[in-house]
Amino acid sequence: MTEVITTDAGDRYHATSDCWGLRAGQQGGEVLGFDIRGIRSTSISDAEAEGKKPCKVCIPD
Ligand SMILES: [Zn+2]
Which of 12, 13, 17, 32 has the most CB atoms within 10 Å of its CB? Predict the structure, then answer.
């Protein structure tokens, strides 16, 4: 099963933790006071189950 990267605060999942979209989201979360340390790997199905959407930067259609 394909592993993806997601965060507790974000609403997207990513193919790589190097994605600038992920980093931008982290910075936004920090501004909003979210805990940005919640980066974790999970499966796409689990990420979808949490209501997260594929990142348009690193997971193109
Ligand atoms: Zn991404």
Answer: 13
